[in-house]
Amino acid sequence: MDLRTAERCLHDRSSAAFAAGAEAGLPGQFRAFERDGLLALLATSPGLGFLNSVCGLTSESLDALPGVLAVFSAAGAPLPRLATDGPAQDGRLHRLGFGPAKPRPVATIDLLSRRESPAEPHGLRVTEARTAEQERVFLDILAAGYDAPPELSSFLRAEHCADGIRRFVAWQGHQPVAAAAVSMHGNVAVLGGAATVPAARGSGAQATLLRHRLNQAAADGADAATAIAAAESASVRNLARIGFDIHCRPGWLAVAPE
Q1: Distances (CA, A) of 74 to 69, 99, 220, 236
Q2: What is the 3-state secondary structure (H, E, C) of the chain?
Q3: Spelled out in words, what is the top-level CATH class assigned to the domain 124-247?
Q4: Which pLDDT belongs to residue 122?
Q5: Domain coordinates in residue numbering, the chain
Q6: Which pLDDT does position 26 carry in this prediction?
Q7: In sequence order, what are the residues at sequence separation of 6 or more whose Cβ sits closer than 8 angstroms to the Cβ of residue 182?
Q8: CA atoms within 13 A on the CB side of 81
Q9: Whole-number pLDDT of residue 113
Q10: pTM above 0.85, yes or no
Q11: Which parts of the chain register pLDDT below 50?
Q12: Which of 88, 182, 216, 234 is most enclosed, with most CB atoms within 10 A?
């Protein structure tokens, strides 16, 4: 799977999350849009400004960026983080008020050539949240794992109640310790939110959930899977360890004028 396809599927997943946030009546504006090859996510709520992003930036699509930034400014939203797909014109980005930042990795894996691996080592078991009570457990564990403030917690809960989201919980004995989600976008599985409660970190719960979701996606007919993770994080290391290709897109942030 090429990077552009992965970005498109991730954008579709985020579009569904934003629609769920708006439908749940969360404060602020949620908008996912595309302009001349640029894929943009815009949230006006101060607690969710970190979601604001634009990807698909190349030397060719860079001409569309000022118009996209004008949409953010008109909405009163924080300026987005940028991710470039390839060589971009750094001088133009500097003139638009952006400076280099940490990479924004995208992970991809071909499921057709991947051999199914054991999904539940480390004495862990995985269940899918199907009933209302199981869904409540999933949402509580996800929010606890993120240690999310109220605004983010509300968004996570709305996002992961959306149609098409499959929700999984990892258990140690009778104790739920981690949660993770996946959704299908065409023949590509997008790995969504994933978090482990602090007391169970390092137990292998996320690696277990990762393998389980890939096995489930392959069984559902997915040809490939993709995910995003923070640069140099445990999540990106888990993805690489299991066989994902990590595409380290250069990142850019709006900088204060001198």
Answers
A1: 9, 22, 42, 35
A2: CCHHHHHHHHHHHHHHHHHHHHHCCCCCCEEEEEECCEEEEEECCHHHHHHCEEEEECCCHHHHHHHHHHHHHHHCCCCCEEEECCCCCHHHHHHCCEEEEEEEEEEEEECCCCCCCCCCCCCEEEEECCCHHHHHHHHHHHHHHHCCCHHHHHHHHHHCCCCCEEEEEEEECCEEEEEEEEEEECCEEEEEEEEECHHHCCCCHHHHHHHHHHHHHHHCCCCEEEEECCCCCHHHHHHHHHCCEEEEEEEEEECCCC
A3: alpha beta
A4: 63
A5: 3-105+249-254, 124-247
A6: 96
A7: 165, 166, 168, 189, 190, 191, 192, 213, 216, 217, 225
A8: 16
A9: 85
A10: yes
A11: 258
A12: 182
Whole-number CA gyration radius for the chain: 18
What is the tens place of the pLDDT at every residue in 35-94? Answer: 999 999 999 998 999 999 999 999 889 999 999 999 999 999 999 999 998 776 788 999
